[in-house]
Design goal:
alpha/beta, Rossmann fold, 5 strands, globular
Amino acid sequence: MDPKTKKVLVVEDDAIMREIVVHKLLSVGLTVLEAGDGKVAIDTWTREKPDIVLLDLMLPEIDGFKVLETMRKHHEAVVSQTPVIVLSNLFSKEDERRTKELSIEDFLVKAYHTTEEILDRVKEVLARQEQK
């Protein structure tokens, strides 16, 4: 996987958390797009067609569940089939079930994972996409 050719959209309303994750992704040469709310996330995802999305669930404007539902119905396969890793502190079996029904790659609870672990998961998903 050549990170310089891969785009990651980080959807996170907490500016400090977003900055930490973005910095980690940039450190390995990935191109990083940012969105601080659900409306910007949908616009950016549709326009930029990232290779993977890191998606928080608790967002202003439009929550992460609605963002995911909207994008999974998008008419362009390159958009609707984008791999998604949910990165949230909102965690219940119901939340996990709802997101998995929307074909996510993984559900990571922010409090339980380091940025290194998040980066490793992003790399794994991107590498698997290249093999398809």
